[in-house]
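[SOLVED] Predicted holo structure with zinc ion

Edit: marking solved, answer below. Original request kept for reference. I posted the sequence and ligand SMILES and asked for the 3D complex as structure tokens.
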Amino acid sequence: MTSSRTSSKTVRSLLALGLGVAAAAFGAAAPASAQPEPVAAPHAGYTGSAREAADSKAFFDAVLKSVAEQRAENPSLKAVTVYYNASQAPSFRSQISSSTSIWNSSVSNVKLASTTGTGNFSYREGNDSRGSYASTDGHGRGYVFLDYAQNQQYDSVRVTAHETGHVLGLPDHYSGPCSELMSGGGPGTSCTNRYPNATERSRVNQLWANGLAKALAKVNQDR
Ligand SMILES: [Zn+2]
């Protein structure tokens, strides 16, 4: 439901802010608006190469855009909650629940919550030779894909928490140690660490504190 008091100008302002935050998060040299729309659905995998950094940024842009729209519709909301729909990933119900608990106990400025509605992103499951990844569906909606085979090979909660890290704005860092969540499959199948390290937690908190505080101020200013 869109409030009649929410102008399209407000939404555009929020989106511009959001994209600026995303560019800062991924260290992009060029403004996000100067980059062309991706043609194929981008993905940031659990294992892969650094070239996928742009893909995880595109995914985060989609999530942030959705959160900004949600907040523009109800600007009085103080807490930043990112909603997910897990109905298309029934086999991973417990892993998704664990990932949510891990992130909600690790960061304070953004929270994850389940919804049966559309949500800001969704989880899906299936078989894909690319493994698990965070992607966009071509209509600007973000989703986390969980691959059956890869989740047998690697610690499944770590895979889920890693992909959810992209939702919160973290890029891949495959060369990192097992103590980093965003090193993904880099440290190998024996790595079972399911928690973000202090640097990763701090990065998420800073990202959501700055971005959404500014977004909220902008909403109040435009009213
Ligand atoms: Zn990844």
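OP edit: The first helix runs from residue 8 to 25. Thanks to everyone who chimed in.
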